[in-house]
Amino acid sequence: MTALSDLRVIDLTQVLAGPYCTMLLADMGADVIKVERPGGDLIRSNPPFLTDAEAEAYGGYFQSVNRGKQSLELDLGDEDDQNDFLSLVETADVVVENYRAGTMESFDLGYEQLREHNPQLIYSSIRGFGDPRTGETSRQGQPSFDLIAQALGGVMETTGQPDGPPTKVGPGIGDLFTAVLNAVGILAAVHHRERTGDGQYVDTAMYDAMVSMCERTVYQYSYTGTSPSRRGNAHPTLFPYNAFETADGYVVIAAFSDGHWRGLCQQMDRPDLVADYPTASDRLAERDMLREAIADWTQPQSSDDVIDALRGTVPVAPVQDTSDIFDDPHLQNRDMLTTVEQPGADENVTIAGSPIKMTETPPTVEDRAPLLDEHREQLLNSLHAEGDD
Questions:
Q1: Which residues are tagged catalytic?
Q2: Which domains occur in the chain, in start order?
Q3: Which of 1, 7, 113, 293 is deepest in the core (most CB within 10 A)?
Q4: Tell me: the pLDDT tens digits for 76-85?
């Protein structure tokens, strides 16, 4: 048995935020039915491909966040397809969508309409600026993507070098963090329904999620009246907490506690720094000079030598690229790199595993992403059989 094996989720989402949310639920055992518009999820055709894009059913983008789901292609503007969709909703626990506000209402399939078919339904939306039901604003209805959310929410203003431009974070955190929060909201609503029998609307906005993720900037501005800006790899209130160049790459060192500072200075053979800068405030006041002293120690050495010197005493790690990640036995032992089939290429590919670990009902990544409309016969036949009963 898996943790969510009794949960049926109708997934109307596409691209990244919504599919990642429902992927988390699928990994934990939920029956996730991906209802795709005619032609399928926009991201099916996105690269990379292993061989020939013409031959492969989808690229790596789609594969990564749609594993373990079933696919059904429906045109919600078509009366027969709409009836099939409503029959699915009657069997579902959760509906998730990431359209612009008002899209489902244009089909007469909004939360209020679906609740008439399934009073206990949990309806969840992921949008750039939220849904009017949970707080109406002038931004609702505007399109949004990860880049927009990172720009508005303070991520870009606080990312990058001090003398460089605002910079987005590499991973699509505007989508991904929002997706994780939305999954938490869905599971909270499921728990509430188990206690009360009542469904509800769950709404997570990308802009809101980025402000929540940048919580440090909010309290800093409140306490100081100054808007935090870019500090590169440094931390505004902790030192040393930074990346340092070595002879063959970079390492990060987090030695901001007094004990870690003493351990670092001991390995650097600089007892004078311990004596002269014994407190965190002392070190923050002279951070530029002290950073140069640490860099003078790391630069002539290899990353491995620095790590060997500090390991077990001071928090330290190499700055890895993805090839390093693939070679790390830790991730192999944690099942964080998992293999699935790539349709049309006759090969297997590696995608990220589930970071949620549970002792009794561990999440699994067993199945590839679905072909478009792959499960039509299976799903519709079961619905019609239930209707005959």
A1: 175
A2: 8-213+332-388 (3.40.50.10540), 241-245+250-318 (no CATH)
A3: 7
A4: 999 999 999 9
